[in-house]
Amino acid sequence: MATINRETIAPLHEKISVTVSPSDYNPGFESSLKKYAKSANIPGFRKGMVPAGVVKKMYGASVFTEEVLRSIENELMQYLQKENISYLGQPLPEDSNDPAGFNMNEPKDYTFTFEIGLRPAFSIPDLATAKTTLHLVETTHEMVEEEIDRISRRLGKMTEPEAVSNEEDVLNVSFQPVDAAGNAIEGSEKKDNSLLLKYFSANTQQQLMGKKKDESIVIQLSTAFEEKEREWIAGDLGLDKENADDLAKSYMLTITKIAFVEKRALNEEFFKEALPGKEITTEEAFRSEIKTQIEAYWKHQAQHLLEHELFHLLSEDTPMDFPEAFLKKWLLKGGEKEQTEEAVEKDFPAFLNQLRWTLVSNEIGTQHAIQVNREEIMDNMRQQLMGYFGSMNMGGNYDWLDSYVERMMSDKQQVESSYQRVFSSKVLAWAGSQAKPVEKKVTAAEFAELQGKHSH
Length: 456
Fold this sequence. Notes:
By secondary structure, the chain is of the alpha+beta class. It has 3 domains: 116 residues, Alpha-Beta Plaits (2-Layer Sandwich), CATH 3.30.70.1050; 169 residues, Trigger factor, domain 2 (Orthogonal Bundle), CATH 1.10.3120; 106 residues, Transcription elongation factor, GreA/GreB, C-terminal domain (Chitinase A, domain 3, Roll). It contains 15 helices and 11 strands. The strands form 3 sheets. Strands 6, 7, 8, 9 and 10 form a 5-stranded antiparallel beta sheet that branches. Helix 9 packs across helix 14. The protein is elongated, with a radius of gyration of 34 Å.
């Protein structure tokens, strides 16, 4: 009969020794040999008629090792389950364990030792008393006007004016690096871009006014654009936005196409196209519906940001002790990919935050019976696919979607990823329902800055 000893190495870090005797592994060993004898194909013997001695000689050593190891593992897992031991990761075999010492001709007691890290005790923070903030963005008249302008242009008519004449003109241009005299630099490459005229500085806009297709001007980034636009233009051109020499470089800017979108008139035909199914007939009702939609958007964003705040509170601020020495050893030796000590040390803080979130979210899920069903996993996969293919022209045909999702459901890793996304979303929704945040009004720009701080 197997014997098991348990001793403490450090807080939440223990050693378990499992000793198995011949009576534990011999029955399995004999049974496995009989199975081999029935199925083995050995020249000179009929299938199923191979003598036990021959089978044992050919396969005995490997079968014996498998059965002893299986017996040890079974005894360990049964003990952990019987004693209701909550552990992190998987038991880690000690380096001193050596199956090479197994000998089927001399059955005896074998001892293997494992290290385990114990799950820490912790309490879910009282979210009702936690300091949280619901950041509210007020829907302004300017937001409504900008959204109406955006929709009227999106549904507008594209024209190609003969010359640049409006700050809303879309210019397809090429940037050709040139020297101080305006001559193309040998070996340099043109880079294409598409810009609204209003993205240029006021002085450069005046230079471009009246220009036609294939006409050019020489510019420097430092003077041709205002700061915000200059930063991303420099990035598109592969330049350092902080480098004055880069921004002082000269380019031949050539217009390759001029386009202008005629905005739609605010009439009933436009309202129906912009908001199908709403039966809106007046400009006043249209503006009211646009405002309602913007308010709903900011309300959703505010709740989402609150959930991000709660995520950080739960994953970073929940007091919890860990068997760090064990976890580092487990990361170093227990994973599928070989790790270095340097890599483990570097990634360890993020690993602990993720582990803390896993423990907290699982505890919340258990306490409040949060479950994820098959259809929710499939819906999440559909959303992921639509997000991926959304920018592509699929011609409105999505008949392939359900069959693609069904194929994804056969991929264990895909299912697990979708499950975790849905489960985490439900846990955070529960957390949001428990919080009693202080409301604070912020601008859209301030809200965007807060979103950047809570990205994860």
